[in-house]
Design goal:
single chain; mainly alpha; 4 helices
Length: 93
């Protein structure tokens, strides 16, 4: 949907108050810090999975265990029942 000239003026940088500019800077700074932390954490996770793999653990199974533990027990049981139903319908089990 195209913007009207009036809409463009309402979001133009010169229309921001000093307070709004400072809030914007704070949000940008926070987001950048969180992105850095996320990158750091992803690196740490990669290292942990590499350590587990070096000790002979199956990292695909380990990732699935982590994913399943995040789920509510009832949701997990329901998903497993649906999966079993579909596999039976396809003659897979």
């Amino acid at each position: 949907m195209p913007f009207d000239d009036e809409d463009d003026a309402s979001v133009a940088p010169q229309s921001l108050t000093q307070s709004s500019k400072e809030k914007l800077r704070q949000y940008v700074d926070r987001i950048e810090r969180l992105e850095e932390e996320k990158t750091e954490l992803m690196g740490q996770l990669k290292e942990v999975y590499a350590e587990a793999k070096a000790l002979g653990f199956d990292t695909k199974a380990l990732r699935q265990v982590i994913r399943l533990r995040k789920q509510d027990a009832r949701e997990r049981a329901e998903a497993e029942m649906v999966l079993d139903l579909y596999l039976q319908a396809l003659g897979e089990i």
